[in-house]
Structures are given as structure tokens and as C-alpha cells.
Amino acid sequence: VMAAHLLSASQLQSLIQLPLGQEAEVLRAAGIAGFQPGEPGVAPRSREQRLISVLLDDLVILARAVAGEGRSFLLYWAYRFELSNLKTILRGKLNALDAAAIREQLVDMGPFARLPTEELLRTEDVAELLRQLESTAFADIARQARRIFEERHESFALDAAIDRQYYAGLAMRALSAEGGSSTQLRALIGSIVDRLNLLWLLRYRFAYGLSSAEAYYLLIPSTFRLGSRELLALSQLGSFEEVIARLPAPFSGWLAGTVNASDVTYILERESWRLAESVLRRSAFNLARAFAYLLLRERDLRWVRAAIKGKRLELPPELIREATGIPAALK
């Protein structure tokens, strides 16, 4: 029933081509009720919140259908949005914004909220915030972030440390999963970790100019297709082109001819989505299938957000497709 809400190629066509404000039927079919893209006076943040709420509403339903470690895994996945809030608060503190200005940028997590937002907003600075966070469910992330912050007092370093620790935790939970869906779940998580590690390596080394050691240290510990040994070797290469040329299969085939990190992102995301679609079609309900649906649902909501934004900017449909990364097969 929930998979029927995933956008079809024709719905994507309609979403991009319909005049702004006339998407209601397509959005209802996708299970996105009460979202008015053309309504005047609605802040972009409110629209963003509505789409995140759609995903969290789906997660509530799926989490009720699984128990134990499976439910914990799905809830942990949702904490990405709370970490987005944490990074917003940290950036606000670094830029000396007041609590009200920071609060306006936060996502309402509803029943999934665990971050002590108000207490963190009352802290004096980043160091105090991270110390306070160490007494919460985010203790592991806070300790890692505090070590990085003590070395490099900058937003990028904090964001990188938080993301690394979060995805390391997600990978650990996937690898410890048991049952008939564990192989599929590990494959799904592996596709995400491999993509992020390669993308981060390319950006850290060749966009941000970090040393090989610094770049490798910020990657997610991995036992997937791009394991730690392969990543260490790749981090020591001197150019984007060298890294792409030295990738093992299947990455060497997928990424042959790519010229920038954006190309890498689009290609590897499509491979993750293809895997998720396969899991969704070919298995009975289990944890892996629930997670596959959430990955595809998040993809669709991202496309909805990008399409609406493109139309509000009065961009032509072809440019919207290119900007959203919608594959050519769906044009």
C-alpha cells in the first residue's frame, strides 16, 4: 500500500510540467496531502517541514510493524534529521546568532525528538554545548565532535565529525542485524556508505585540499565494497582522475568518464535507488524492504521539493530535470 505512493515516471512528468499550484492531484496520489506549492505567503521552511513530516509519518507506520533491533535501526536512521538540527545549532553558535534566529531554522521532529533543543540553545558556546550533549543519547557523536572542535574551530570539521560518527553507527547496526533480510539490509547500507566515502574522499582531497591522512581520518570505517584498505590507497592518490582510474569493480565501470563529484553523486545514488527498487519488488515485508521504501520515498520527496523550487524560480522543465538529477529514463 505504501509503495503505491512512490512516484511513477508519468507523475514526475506531470509534477515538473504542470503550472505551479496545479499539482494537487499528483501530490495526493503520492500521499502528500495538505501541501500547497503555489500558496502565497508560505515560507519555504514551512514547505520543507511538511515534506519531512510526510517521511516521518511513514516511518511511524513502518516502525510499528517491526520490533527489537529492527525498530531501533529505523529510529536511528530518522536521527539524521535531528543531527541536521544539531549542526544548525552549532553553526548558529559559531556565528553568534541568538536563540530565536536559530530556532526558526530547526526541523520539528515530532515524536522522534530526542535532542534537548532548548537546553542546547541556552548554552554559552560550542564547547559548553558539546559537553552538555555528552550526557544525552548523542554522547558518542558529541565526544567525537568535541575532539575535532578542539583541534579545528570550524563548522566544516564539526559537520564532518558528526556525519562520520552517525554513519558509522548506522553501518554497525546494519552489520549486526539478524534474520532473513540481513544480507539485503547490509547491501543497502553498503551502497550508501560506499557512495559517501568516495564522495567525501574526492571533496576532502581535491576541493578542500586536505592531506591524505586528514581525508582518510574523516571517512566512515568500512567493510563494504570500498573497504578501509581500498580507501586508504585511494586517499593517497594525487588527482580526481587517478582516483577514478584506480577504483575497483563495479565502481570502475559505473564511474568511467566522470569528470566531477556531482557526476559521481548522481551515478552512485541511482545505483542505490536501483538496489532499493529491487529489494522492494522481490521480497516480502521485512526490515530491508521497509528501509528500501524509505530510501525511495526520501528520493521522491527530494524530487518534489526540487521541482517546486524550480518552478517557483520559473526554470524550464529540462533545466529542472537536470538540477534534480532525475534519470534520463524518467524523462
How would you describe the overall organization of this protein?
This protein has 331 residues and is an all-alpha fold. The chain is built from 17 helices and no strands. The chain has helices spanning 9-17, 24-29, 44-64, 68-94, 99-103, 117-121, 126-133, 139-151, 155-175, 182-206, 212-217, 228-235, 240-245, 251-254, 261-282, 287-312, 317-324. Helix 3 packs antiparallel against helix 4 (68-94). The longest helix has 27 residues, at 68-94. The protein is globular.
Keywords:
17 helices, 331 residues, mainly alpha
Mean pLDDT: 89
Which residues form runs of ≥5 with pLDDT under 50? Answer: none
Q: Figure out the total of helices.
A: 17
Q: Mind summarizing the main beta sheet?
A: none
What Rg do the Cα atoms give?
A: 20 Å
Secondary structure: elements and pairs:
Layout: H1 9-17, H2 24-29, H3 44-64, H4 68-94, H5 99-103, H6 117-121, H7 126-133, H8 139-151, H9 155-175, H10 182-206, H11 212-217, H12 228-235, H13 240-245, H14 251-254, H15 261-282, H16 287-312, H17 317-324
Offer a quick outline of the entry:
The protein has 331 residues and is an all-alpha fold.
